[in-house]
Structures are given as structure tokens and as C-alpha cells.
Amino acid sequence: MLLLFTALLTGALGYMAARSTPSRYVAEGLLLFDNQQPAIPELNQYVPSNSAPPNQRIRTEADVLRSRQLAEDVVERTPVLPEVTEKPSFLGTLRQEVTGAVANLITEIREAIGMPADGAETDSRDPVIDPKHIQLEELQQRLDIRTTDNSNVVGIRFTSTSPVIAANVVNTLMDRYIALDIDAKQRSTEQANRWLSERLAVLREEVEAADSKIQAFRRETGLLETSIGAVSTVQLTEDQSRVAVARQELSRAQAALDAATRPGGRGATTEALASPVVQALRAREAEVVQRAATLGAGLGARHPDRRAVDAELRDLRAQIDSETGKIITALRRDVDAARSRLEASQAALNTSRTAARGGAEATVTLTQLTRDAESRRAVYQAFLARLEQTRLSAAQFPIARVVSPATVPFRATGPSAGVIGAFSAIAGFLFVAALLVLRNLGRNTVNSPRDLALITGVQNVGSLPTLPGGRRRGMPNLVLERGDSDIAETLRALRINLQSVGRGGPASTVLVTSPSAGDGKTTLAVALARLCAADGMKVLLLETDMRRPRIAATIGAPRSRGSIESVLTGKADLRDAVHVDSRSGLHCLFSDQSAAHPQQLIDSDAFADMLDRARNEYQLVVLDSPPIMRVADAVLLSAYSDVILFAVGWERTSTDMLAEAIRRLPEDARARTATVLTRVRPGRMDPLSYYAGYARSGPPPAPRLPAPST
Fold it and tell me: Which residues are listed as membrane-spanning (predicted)?
């Protein structure tokens, strides 16, 4: 029920909030930023351009679109806040009322403690809020600039309660952005033109002065120049080239001769190998060598065939040596010719050096003057080209263009009120469910008879519910008013199951205790005793919890003349001190809290004698003891009891406390211990089996509970 109520409440609140909120419309336009730069490279140095990486450039322009200067330009041309003239929403009115109430409360507190109110000091100094400033702030808050990696398209979104204004703001923003970019480029172009014109005038004068200086120097020195330099310099260069070529030829010829005359190298030179005659002789030599090898394998050295082959081989090798000698002679002639050419070229080079040495200093000076003039002329030509190119209007190179203008949206953005209500209901449901789950996990309490049996290791004999109505309609009264109810049947089954827990015979003494206070042990003891008495048994209920007695208040009995303390101290007889419940016939011996040390009374011979007498006179004796985790009374009473019945609160008693409570009992008492799960919420247990009664008459039965496990 709690989850359902929470879901309905949050769903209704979400639906009301959505209905009271004005509809909002989103208009979107797209700008494409071109990476292509102007076709004039020099123009990029003076006209504003962006050479940053594409992604960085797009993010930079997105920041420009969010700038305050552009927002001010848009606000001056189109309205931004239509809702200032509309009826305020429910949430807006509520926010204003809450803000006003808080401000009034702060003012009253200041006055109460003697502090002056804020208004008394600042009324004369409060600035007047400019409506344009409000629109500017709203524009920057509702504007959404979206960029995507690896894309040059930028999305521009604006949210407003008016669809027309939403589209107008987006389109105006894109138009003004492009217009301001073009204006900035035009101003930069004009500034570049002025600077280039001034610089060109200075450079022209410098070029003319450099040319005049070169002409004057030529007239003074009489240097001759060709298209490739001075005559002496050109001749010297050519002679140096000839000497280098002659040296290379001499080196090549000498290397070939050395290779041919090297011991063991005859016939192996490049020229010999390239000679057709030598190649033919080498081929015949190879054939004869192969034939000699074949004959040598089967014939002796004096055989005529073998001698003929050896003679032929010697003849071929002599011919090869003869041809190689001719080649070596030719190589010597080539070396001599190359050396002669080198000597002639060297002589010509010496002559050129002598001729060029006289004009070297003048040539160096002329070269420096020429280089200076050329560098100045190059700078002048570059600036002249830039001036001509920057005269083109930079407006023909806009940084971006509109690829998708914003249209008036016809559908409000966001989910409908019904969807918001549904999501609110689901969120509320899940939130409360999560809180309940976390509460259960954090408690680490007993949640089922199965957990109870696993933790304690003893038998569970039943589960009892929690009932509405307080003490007037509690369990002790219900078992009398509705003897055929589920609870009564469960208690009867519990009484039967206790017989299997005892020392082998009928359980005549039952100790009812619990790990801690509030687990329902007194209610269980009174209800069990009353039911057994109402069913015809002679039952005595002993209130051994002498520190916090509750039995008299539970059954609504007046104060008795005697008490368990008076019986144990010998001041009263058991028969005189017993109170008889008029509704069930149950005999009760209450406590008056007069004992200073209840444990001494429980551990006395008088208590043992009283209990022996009670066993002889009654069929069943039920002892209501204190919680075992508070005092040791229950441990002492366990020695007198046939059965120890633990009342464990459902989702209340922690597992650690329960395990410790069982551990504190003596080992022989644990074998006589059983558990009862109390205060169970109906419908939360595993409905495997029920004791629902058999009678059909009477009022409707109580919520069904599972039968005790065996």
C-alpha cells in the first residue's frame, strides 16, 4: 500500500507540475564552416583567417557564437522574452510566494535582534534593472551551441515559450554572426592596404638607390658581365671543370693499367674480358679443360689423346696471353694521352687564375651590391603583389554559411504531462522500494522461519502476526473472543509442537523469553496460557520478569494481594497470591517489583520448591522471563524449564543478537529450545500451509499465517 500510495502521489504531483509549466519550443539552425581558404596565399597574412586545426577552430567559433557581444547585437534586433507579458505559471507563482515569505521572515528576524532591514540601507542605492540586461541573460542561458567531432557543422538551438521568437532568435543570431565576420574582414583588409601602401613607397626608394650604386661601381671598375657572371669568372670555372675531367680520365686509365699489370691479373682486366677474341679463346679453353678432365678420369698421363688435349690447352692459353698483352699496350697509350690532357688543362687553369685574381676584389664587392639590390627588389615585388591582391574585398570569403535556417516549431519540446506523471509515479515507486530494500539490508534482521532455523540451529514451532488495534484488541484477547481464528489454531499447533521439544514427555514447564525487549514475549506467554486455560487445561502463568512486569496490564487485571516476591520470601502462600482470570480461568502470579535482587530469588530453594508445587497442581506452567540479552535471569530459569520458547521479532531482531542469545544458553538447554517468529506482517510470509480453522460461523477470520515448521 505504501508503494502504491507513493506512486500515485508522485505521479499526480508530476502531472500537475507538467500541466502548470508553460510549453517550450526549440528552434534549430545549422551553420557550415568552410575549411577552404582564399586562393591568394598572401591575403591570408593580412585578412583574418583561422589556421588552427579543424576541431579547435570549430570550438573557437562556437565560443564566439556564445559571446556577449553577439548576444547584445541579437537582443537589439529581436525580442527574446515573450513570457514576461503572459500569465505566470503555477510553479513561478509558488516560487515567488516562497521567496517573498523567506524575505519577510529574514526581515522580522533582523528586526527582532536589532539589526536594520536591508531595504532601509539599500533602497536609495539599488540599481535599476535594465530589461535589455534581463533579455541578454535569458538569451545566453537558453542558447545551446552544439558541435560534433569530425564535422564542420554547428547546430544552434534556442528554447522559448513562443515558437516564432525561438526561430527568429536563431536566424538573427546566424545572420548577425556572418555579418559581423564580414565587417571584421573588411576592416582588416582596409588596414592592410594602408600599411602596404606606406611600406611600398619606402621599398621603392631603397631599390632605386641600390641599382644606382651598382651602376656607379661598374663604371669605376670596368667589370664585364654576362648573363651568367663576369667573363674572368666564367673562364676560370670552365678551366676548373676541364682539369677535373682530365684528372678523372687519367685516374680511370691508370686504374685499368694497374689492374692489367698486377701479378696474377693477366687476362682478367675489363678490356680483356670485353674483347671478342679473348672471349672466344676463353670459351675454347673451358671446353678443352672439361675434355681434359674427362680423359684424365679414364686415361693415363702418357696416353696420346690426353697429350693432344694438354697441348691444345697450352696453345689456347698462349693465345690468350698474347691478346692480353696487346690490350695492356693500348692501356699504356691511353694513360700517356690522359696525362698530356691533364697537363694542358692545368696550364690553362693557371692562366685563368692569374687573369681572374686581379678582379676578384671588385667582383666580391659587386656581388654584395647585386645581392643587396636583388633582396630589396624581391621584397618590393612581394609587397606590390600583396597590395594588388588585398584590394580584393575579403567579403567574398565568409567564414560560414547557413545550410539550414531555423523554422517555426509546431510541437512543444519535452514529454507530455501524462508521460511526466507516469515517470514520476515510477520514480516514486522505485525510490520508496529502494529505501525499503536498503532498510532491510541495513538491518540484517530475521525475515523468515528458514533464516531463523539456519541462524539458531533449533526448531521453529510457529509464526504469529502483528494485529491492529493496540492492547484492547491484542492477541491475548483475540484468542478468547475468536477461539476458532487462525491465531488460535496456530497457538494450539505451537502447544502440540512443544511436546516434541521437551525432555521426552509432555512439556509441563515452558519458559518464554526473547533476545531483547519488544519482541512480543509477554504477549506470546499470555496468549498461549490463556488459550490453554480456555481449552480446559489448568494453567499457571508466572511473571518471573520482576524488573518490568507487564502481565497484569496485558490481561487488564487489578493489583493482586500477593505477588511472586511475597511467595518466595514466605510472606504469602502460593494459593492465596494467585490471581484467577475471569475470562479464561487462567491462574496468574504477578510481580510487584519489590525484589532488589531478582536473581537471588530465582536461584533460591524457595523458587525451586514453588515450581515443584506448581508442577504438581497445574498441567502447564508458563514462565515469562526477562530478555536474555539484558539480564541472566532467563539462563537461570532455563534449568527449571522443560521447554525454552524464544520469541523473535520479524524484521526487528538482528541475526547477530539472536545468535548470541542462543549461545548464552547452556548446551543442555539448547536441545530444549524452540523459536516463534512474532509480529509478522500478514502476506509477507511464504504461504505453504495454514492453520485457518474449520468453523464457518462467527466474524471473519484474521489474516492467514503459515503453520509452524517442524
Answer: 417-438
Report yes or no on 368 lying in a domain.
no
706 φ/ψ angles, rounded to the nearest 5 degrees: -70, 150
- Record the cell numbers describing residue 528, joined without a space: 498461549
Q: At what angle do helices 655-664 and 449-456 cross, to 10 degrees?
A: 40
Q: Which residues contact 58 (CB under 8 A, 6 or more apart)?
A: 33, 147, 151, 152, 154
Q: Which cell numbers hold the place of 474?
A: 491484542
d(CA 626, CA 517): 8
Q: Within the chain, which residues score under 70 in pLDDT?
A: 1-2, 15, 18-21, 35-53, 81-102, 105, 108, 110-130, 221-232, 263-275, 300, 355-362, 390-397, 414-417, 439-443, 468-473, 502-506, 682-710
Sign of the four-CA dihedral 515, 519, 523, 529:
negative
Q: Give bridge partners of residue 643 from the DSSP assignment.
A: 510
Taking the complete model, does pTM exceed 0.70, yes or no? no
Name 589's bridge partners: 542
Domain extent at residue 245 = 229-358
Judge whether 708 and 493 are in contact, CB under 8 Å.
yes
Same domain, 96 and 156: yes
Q: What is the pLDDT of residue 706?
A: 38
Long-range contacts of 75-79 (CB under 8 A, 24+ apart): 75/132, 75/135, 75/136, 75/139, 76/132, 77/172, 77/176, 78/165, 78/168, 78/169, 78/172, 79/135, 79/165
3-state DSSP assignment of residue 463: strand
Q: What is the 3-state secondary structure (H, E, C) of 596-626?
A: CCHHHHHCCHHHHHHHHHHHHHCCEEEEECC
Q: How many CA atoms lie within 13 A of 44 on its CB side?
A: 11
Per the CB < 8 A criterion, the answer to whether 446 and 658 are in contact is yes
Q: Are residue 525 and residue 566 in the same domain, yes or no?
A: yes
What Rg do the C-alpha atoms of the chain give, in angstroms? 59
- Cα three-residue angle 677-678-680, rounded to 5 degrees: 95
For residue 46 the three cell numbers come to 593580412
Domain count, the chain: 3
The owner of cell 657572371 is 229
User: Are 111 and 255 found together in one domain?
Assistant: no
Number of other CB atoms surrounding residue 68 within 10 Å: 11
Taking each continuous run of H as one helix and of E as one strand, the counts in the chain are 25, 14
Region for 340 from its dihedrals, namely left if φ exceeds 0, alpha if ψ lies in -120 to 50, beta otherwise: alpha
How large is the angle between the packed helices 417-443 and 2-20, nearest 10 degrees? 150
Q: Where are the alpha helices (DSSP H) in 482-597?
A: 486-498, 521-534, 551-555, 564-568, 574-577
Do 464 and 409 belong together in one domain? no
- Residue 193 corresponds to which cell in the numbers above? 592596404
Q: Which amino acid is at 263?
A: P
- Residue 23 in grid coordinates: 510549453
Contact between 564 and 589 (Cβ < 8 Å)? yes
Mean per-residue pLDDT of the chain: 77
Q: Is residue 205 part of a domain?
A: no
Residue-wise pLDDT for 407-462, tens only, equals 888 777 766 667 777 888 788 878 877 877 776 666 678 777 887 888 888 888 88
Residue 203, in any domain of the structure: no
**Separation CA 595–CA 134 (nearest Å):** 80
- Residue 525, pLDDT score: 92
Distance CA 701, CA 487 (A): 9
Q: H-helix or E-strand containing 673? A: strand 673-680
With b for 16 or more beta-carbon neighbours within 10 A and e for fewer, the 469-502 pattern comes to eeeeebbbbbbbebbebbbbbbbbbbbebbeebb
370: in domain: no
Q: In this structure, are residues 446 and 677 in contact, taking their beta carbons and an 8 Å threshold?
A: yes
Question: Using H for helix, E for strand and C for coil, what is the string for 386-422?
Answer: HHHHHCCCHHHCCCEEEEECCCCCCCCCCCCHHHHHH
